[in-house]
Design goal:
alpha/beta, 11 helices, globular, about 280 residues, UPF0759_sf, TIM Barrel, DUF72
Length: about 280
């Protein structure tokens, strides 16, 4: 049966203890608490360093088999060597994340300079990945979004490798100037690309960036609730990640997005209710 997974860019954040997570938790328990709110998470830390296999094993122990990790490939693979001559690094990475099994999606986030002329290298790289590993690619070169030939070239390469095109939708965020320090920081760092809503596989993945304003964020995701509902009716099982500039409310927003989709697809299973969090005390 089709499932909707929702999540955030991380499973721990300075604003969450006392709201979404208990006040004091050892590191090995934080993911378990987060998994009471969401059933997916982005693995962004793996971009900077490949974790120890023993560490990844604790991630698997803290989550149900249906939980999803979308783990970003190391920076040395995608940005420094641009997918060429990375056999040793990829062997180490695949070995490290193996405990996650089918929970893991391999996320290849490519730099904005990786353009249509580099698609052959991407195709060769994807063909060398283990066939049983789910994979998704995020591109940031404008040509892939604005030139029909480049779009078709990338879609064909990804489809041949049973790989999803992972869009990062920032269109709502860039509709009006920043109004806070967090929005100003995101304004400088986040990519500005057209919205893409076409799925290539039965497990599409979307990253959506809203605003500081909850109302603007919710209003901005309306096109996605319709798209995701359509995917579910087609039998696909999408994963949607909710971002805001500060991510302070991200777990609650992810659950709200799931609720909004359920209004369109009443047969969709609800998320489990999270454990109540004890309020902060003075003593």
């Amino acid at each position: 049966m089709a499932r909707l997974h929702v999540g955030c860019a991380m499973w721990t954040h300075k604003a969450w203890p006392g709201r979404f997570l208990p006040q004091s938790l050892p590191a090995k328990e934080r993911l378990r608490a987060y998994a009471g709110w969401c059933n997916a998470v982005e693995g962004n830390t793996t971009f900077y360093a490949t974790p120890a296999r023993t560490t990844v094993a604790t991630w698997a122990q803290q989550t149900d088999p249906d939980f999803r990790f979308v783990v970003k490939l190391p920076k040395v693979v995608t940005h420094e060597r641009r997918l060429v001559g990375v056999e040793a690094e990829m062997r180490a990475f695949l070995e490290a994340v193996e405990p996650l099994g089918e929970r893991a999606v391999l996320w290849t986030q490519l730099p904005g300079s990786f353009g249509p002329a580099d698609v052959d290298a991407l195709g060769r790289f994807l063909r060398r990945l283990p066939a049983d590993r789910r994979r998704a690619v995020e591109v940031r070169h404008p040509g892939f979004f604005t030139d029909a030939g480049s779009t078709a070239l990338l879609e064909g390469t990804l489809t041949d490798a049973d790989t999803e095109w992972l869009p990062f939708d920032t269109t709502v965020f860039f509709q009006s100037p920043p109004t806070s320090e967090a929005e100003q920081d995101a304004w400088v760092k986040k990519p500005r690309l057209p919205r893409r809503t076409r799925a290539l596989t039965n497990r599409p993945i979307v990253r959506y960036l809203g605003r500081d304003s909850i109302e603007e964020t919710v209003e901005g995701w309306r096109p996605w609730t319709a798209v995701v509902a359509g995917w579910l009716r087609e039998g696909r099982s999408p994963t949607v990640f909710l971002h805001t500039p500060d991510n302070d409310d991200a777990p609650a927003l992810a659950r709200r997005f799931h609720d909004d989709v359920r209004k369109l697809v009443p047969g969709l299973d609800p998320l489990p209710e999270p454990e109540p969090v004890e309020p902060a005390t003075l003593f």
